[in-house]
Design brief:
about 120 residues, mainly alpha, 4 helices
């Protein structure tokens, strides 16, 4: 705890020297874990936030390009935590490419019908 207090003194001193301020209600002191930007920071290191893991696990299979994009975006944010992420996501990424090809193909096929 003494080391923690010393680090706090240094941080507060740097803030003061640079005329920066911290809102007390947004600060946590003496805690063993902090949830921040979708991550959980602990003494063991950086981990995925449990709520985000649950969101990924409970996500309904995408039925449209926008929902597929949303899922890929959320999952990609955590790619460094998921072993073989690229290999796992390749089929989903290919679905997106296939959908794009279909849309382009449809547009091309319909061109002769338009004046």
């Amino acid at each position: 705890m003494e080391e923690h207090v010393e680090h706090l003194r240094k941080v507060f001193q740097r803030l003061k020297e640079n005329k920066l301020y911290a809102k007390f209600e947004k600060c946590d002191f003496g805690v063993t874990k902090v949830d921040f930007l979708g991550h959980r920071i602990t003494q063991e290191g950086l981990k995925m936030d449990d709520h985000k893991v649950k969101a990924i696990l409970d996500w309904e299979p995408p039925r449209s390009v926008p929902t597929l994009k949303s899922f890929l975006g959320l999952a990609s944010y955590y790619r460094k935590f998921i072993k073989n992420f690229t290999k796992i996501m390749t089929p989903l990424t290919n679905l997106f490419k296939k959908s794009f090809e279909i849309m382009n193909g449809t547009k091309h096929a319909m061109r002769p019908l338009k004046p």
